[in-house]
Amino acid sequence: MEEADALVGMGNHDGARDIYFDIAASCPKYERCAEALLRVGEIEANVKGRPENALEAYARVIEFYPLKEAGRIARERRAALFERKSDYLGAAEEYAQLLQYFPKNANAAYHLLRLGESYVALGNYKQARNELQGLIDSSSVNEDIRAEALFAYAESYFLQGRLGLAEKAYQRLIAEFPKSKFVSEARMKVATCREERGLMGDAVKSMEAAKKGFPNEKIIQERLKSMEKRGVAKPAAVVKDQDKAKEEAKKAHEEYDEKRNNKKSKEKTEESN
Question: How far, in Å, CA of 223 to CA of 211, rounded?
Fold first, then answer.
């Protein structure tokens, strides 16, 4: 094993892989074999760019060590490779197996998050929400994971076209996890939800709010221009606050009534004369 490790250090990955394979073939049921196959998988996936070969190497580890730490690592790496290939069904299967066989592992919450996100990608939105709900409501789960779970939960409604429920979930994310990296995107999605539901003034305000912390302000400006072209609203610089607009409308009506009453009084005076 040391010789192969040394070859990796020198950049001779082909030579190292061959030695790891020899080690795996010579003692397939010993932990040394699992370690060698994990390293083969790493070379195939990250150096050679051959994910299928890596998946096969990891599958052999799982075959011999399904409940050992090596088997857990192999499943995690298979899941990640499936995600890289956009094979979310394969990823979901691996994450489900991880949760079944390693429920108390320190990464269990992350596995559940990825399972839920895989279901969102597959369009199985109800199942996604079932998986994510427990994470969202658990105070013992890391806040970053809870925030990402809530964002995925909101996305499931958004992609399903249930915009009212999506907006509610995005707003919960903004309120409960104000420092999350997902807040800016959540604000944009709130604006989109409102725009599509015809709440035009609110949509513009939400889009303006999304500027804060969003990495690319140009995207926000383009969205605002798009709203203007659609006749939704003008940029927020000229969108008046609703309370102020109501006050101005009230004042305008009062001025109109006053002028009308003055005109009537004048007409009566003229008639009496």
Answer: 11
